[in-house]
Amino acid sequence: MAAQSVFDLLALSPPGWGGNLLRGAWNTIQIAVLAYGLGIGLGLIGAMAKLSGNKPAFWVAETYTTLVRAVPDLLLIMLLYYAGTTALNQLLASYGVSAIQVSGFAAGVGVLGFVQGAYATEVLRAAIQAVPVGQMEAAKAFGMSPLLRWRRVLIPAMLPFALPGMANLWLVLTKATALLAVVGYGELTLETRQAAGSTKAYFLFFSAAMVIYLVITLVSQRFFTWLENRMRRGQRRHA
Q: Does pLDDT of 133 surpass 60?
């Protein structure tokens, strides 16, 4: 393939496919960010349930994390997207409401966030348990309410312990967005497959996608390193 034809294929405007790849990358980042936020919320609820001492809450959270971590992500996506949409429309029909079509974007955020929450539960649970009990007891002795103790003491103290694991979950999530190609959503992998299939330049476009994923990973690593260093300010560093 001539060098000029490579530039033509990767051009941002048609007949080049570079714009499609960048649009797919942007969709990937959007889904990952929203699913990550949802996963952190579910993970925090799950961690609190496991540490609450309430047996029903513990077993609900334990069942959730066990089932999600046991079932492949691809199977969960297929199950929750297709079966979930069917069940939702059957429920709506029973109330006389017209059927709806769940968008690939909403399904991707919901499914990946649901999966991410199971893993985040264990990361956050371990981080909370790593915080010295004396810090919470001191906050309670000062008269802080439970919510204030969580916001002002526990969460800032547990973040340095949670960040390495949460950084790994983010990197895994950015790759897991590729599974959404099975529901036809135009994230980076699907856009790459379409470009490669149309032009037969498979090596070129899959290499370009690999570079984009690598850039996302490197930028993410720099961000989490900066954030971890910021969270650990004032703490003793081990040699």
A: yes
Tokens of 3: 């060098």
Q: What confidence score (pLDDT) does residue 239 get?
A: 45
Residue whose entry in the numeric block shows the structure tokens 């000062």:
142
Extract the tokens encoding 178: 């590729």
Gap between the Cα atoms of 190 and 95, Å rounded? 37
Render pLDDT for 73-118 as a digit per residue (tens, 0 to 9): 888 888 877 777 788 888 888 888 787 777 778 888 888 999 999 9
Q: Can you read off the two tokens belonging to residue 93?
A: 């029909």
Rounded Cα distance, 128 and 166, in Å: 13
Distance CA 116, CA 104 (A): 18
Structural contact between residues 208 and 192, judged by C-beta atoms closer than 8 angstroms = yes
CA-only gyration radius of the chain, Å: 22
